[in-house]
Amino acid sequence: MFTGLIETTGTILDIVPSRNSAGPTRMTISAPSIAPRLHIGDSVAVSGVCLTALDITLTTFSADLAEETLARTTLSKLTCGTVVNLELPTPAGSPLGGHVVQGHVDGVGTLIVVEPVNPDDEATTDWRLRLAIPSQLSKYVAPQGSITVDGISLTVAGIIGDVVSIAIIPHTYSMTTIRTLRPGSPINIEVDMLAKYAEKQAAAQPTPARRPQWTVTEGYLLENGY
Fold it and tell me: Is residue 62 annotated as a catalytic residue, yes or no?
């Protein structure tokens, strides 16, 4: 489990398709600040996608990307040199500073714009981010609720139709890949898992039996002495 608090960023060094058409694609990432803490088989979130660490060195790790991962996320669109957000799992008992993030991407959104609130002071200004999300995910997004964008736990400022608005503080802008995004950039989206479970539970509840329709008839009146 993750919290959406990005620990660091890494850079894609290599992407090698499998020689077997049915095999996974292998991605290698430069991550000197977290690679020494990884062990073979550990989970690591790469721009919001939960992957398994392999072939670890002092500065890099690799991960295999299954067909399902490539089809459902933005990882199939990344190239060597791309910067990615990285987060290690949250140990049991640790404070949950963001929200519960699984690393299971629900869909790919598209950046509309990310712009400074104060263009004259980009070093300290807040930023506004707007993105379009798949329409089937809109029902899980609510103002002041949580959403995961490329692995980052963010708070929804507003939603109109399929367009989500988010306020970004300077720290988040400078420490994550948000600073590298451009209009049209694809973005991994994971909605709040609690909203999905709530929907599932509500759907499982039995529908209350409808009361039979009752009307006053001539027969009823005669039968009851009217």
Answer: no
Quote the number of domains for the chain.
2
Residue 191's SS3 state is: strand
Q: What is the pLDDT of residues 129-157, one digit of tens each?
A: 999 999 999 999 999 999 999 999 999 99
pLDDT tens for 79-118 read: 999 999 999 998 777 777 778 899 999 999 999 999 999 9
| Residue 171 known to be catalytic | no
> What is the CATH number for 75?
2.40.30.20
Which one of the listed residues 132, 155, 165, 195 is annotated catalytic? 155
Asked whether residue 81 falls in the same domain as residue 31, the answer is: yes
Are 69 and 49 spatial neighbours (Cβ–Cβ below 8 Å)? yes
Alpha carbon distance 126, 164 (integer Å):
17
Does the residue 151 lie in any domain? Answer: yes
Domain around 122: 107-194
Query: Which one from 8, 11, 30, 43 is the annotated catalytic residue?
Result: 43
Our answer to whether residue 53 is catalytic in this structure is no
For residue 50, indicate whether it is catalytic: yes
Measured over the CA atoms of residue 45, residue 49, residue 54 and residue 59, the dihedral's sign is negative
Does 141 share its domain with 111? yes
What is the tally of helices (H) and strands (E) in the chain?
Answer: 4, 12
pTM here is: 0.85
Side by side, which strands form the sheet with 8-16?
49-52, 43-46, 83-87, 8-16, 25-30, 60-65
